[in-house]
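Worked example 3 (structure in, sequence out).
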């Protein structure tokens, strides 16, 4: 069975302003998109556990017209603050790479 990052054409994270992270998952085909969404593997419970957040702090937006899913949650440390090790938020998708 393929992992999510193998199914998705785009699997990336980035800042959504200095206080939020967004993870974008975009698919090439409607079939792959539908399979991922219907599987239920992309859910608030898993995201909140992986990032050690309360479920209510996680938003998951599904965009069928774009064959995309966007996950949004607050950063633990604002971008550029002392001790921030990922100013652009580009390394945050790693916790979800093993989604099936």
């Amino acid at each position: 069975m393929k992992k999510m990052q193998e199914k998705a054409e785009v699997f990336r994270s980035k800042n959504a302003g200095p206080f939020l992270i967004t993870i974008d998952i975009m698919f090439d085909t409607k079939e792959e998109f539908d399979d991922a969404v219907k599987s239920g593997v992309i859910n608030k419970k898993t995201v909140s556990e992986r990032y050690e957040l309360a479920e209510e702090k996680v938003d998951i937006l599904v965009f069928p017209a774009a064959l995309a899913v966007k996950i949004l949650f607050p950063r633990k440390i604002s971008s550029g603050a002392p001790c921030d090790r990922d100013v652009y938020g580009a390394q945050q998708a790693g916790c979800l790479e093993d989604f099936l």
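Notes: The chain has one domain: 4-92. The chain has a mean pLDDT of 90.
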